[in-house]
Amino acid sequence: MLKSTHGTLVGMRFLIVIAAVAATACSPASDQAVPEFAFEVVHAYPHDRNAFTEGLFYSNGFLYESTGLESGRSSVRKVRLETGEVIQKFQLPDQYFGEGIVKWHDKLYQLTYKSETGFIFDFETFGKKGEFRYQGQGWAFTTDGKQIYMDGSRDVQAGTSDAEIRILDPETLKEKGAIQVTDEGRPVRNLNELEWVKGEIFANIWQTNRIARIDPKTGKVVGWIDLSGLLPPDGGQPVDVLNGIAYDDEHDRLFVTGKLWPKLFEIKLLKKRSQ
Ligand SMILES: [Ca+2]
User: Fold this and answer.
1) CATH for 34-271, options being 3.60.9.10, 3.40.640.10, 2.120.10.30, 3.30.750.24
2) Cβ pair 152, 188 in contact under 8 A
3) How far apart are CA 227 and CA 60, in angstroms?
4) How far is the CA of 167 from the centre of ligand 1 (A)?
5) Ligand 1 centroid from CA 151, angstroms
6) Please, which residues have CB within 8 angstroms of residue 187's CB and are 6 or more apart in sequence?
7) Confidence of residue 274 (pLDDT cuts 50, 70, 90)
8) Are 159 and 211 in contact (CB under 8 A)?
9) pTM of the model
10) Which of 10, 103, 178, 256 is 20 to 30 Å from 250 by CA-CA measure?
11) How many whole angstroms from 9 Cα to the centroid of ligand 1?
12) Per-residue pLDDT reduced to its tens digit, 223-252
């Protein structure tokens, strides 16, 4: 009996070792490293260096931009890509800090930083049509044409955001789910300006020069884009961080800019050679 039990235990231990080896083989840490991408500038365009860019998307030949900061610096703008000229603008009341924007049919939705209040505008005229509420801070919006994706900054007092992307119903703007975002098993926080690009969500990591490429089905980071050196220091007015991604799906053009940057860039991604 004892021998038999011992034999079973040895057998079980062997099986556990096999299972542990198999689990290690399948663990994220032993997967191939997440690919890194560098960039090549295709074109540089002028950008309003007083625009504290918080939201950006492209639609039908124009850029749409949301700017932040209080005291009259927050706005929604329609911008001519080639010249950076602001051709239409809605100025937010002084107490609001503009954040992410997204187009939904004939409407444009805008988040604000800590007011837990969003605005609904007419897409063509920027006439205000209503407001909506949400929990926590508002950082970023994007859409795949089916639903709306929002950052995960659920705590209005927090200095960082949670490692997730909220999914909203595009008509009611109520949360209907969330994507937990991980990089090789580790949570990825501070997902700022978002953009849906060919089935992935691109996210600026706040206060870095990096963009995470996220698979929305799994939440896993499937690539990192390193934009260090994109904006060379010019010795003039100080600029803030990289923030702002827009994608033109008709012509497959990817645009990026930053807060108070004098330029907006069309870039192409280059896969870095493995280290
Ligand atoms: Ca965007």
Assistant:
1) 2.120.10.30
2) no
3) 26
4) 15
5) 12
6) 163, 180, 181
7) low
8) no
9) 0.87
10) 178
11) 57
12) 999 999 999 877 777 789 999 999 999 999
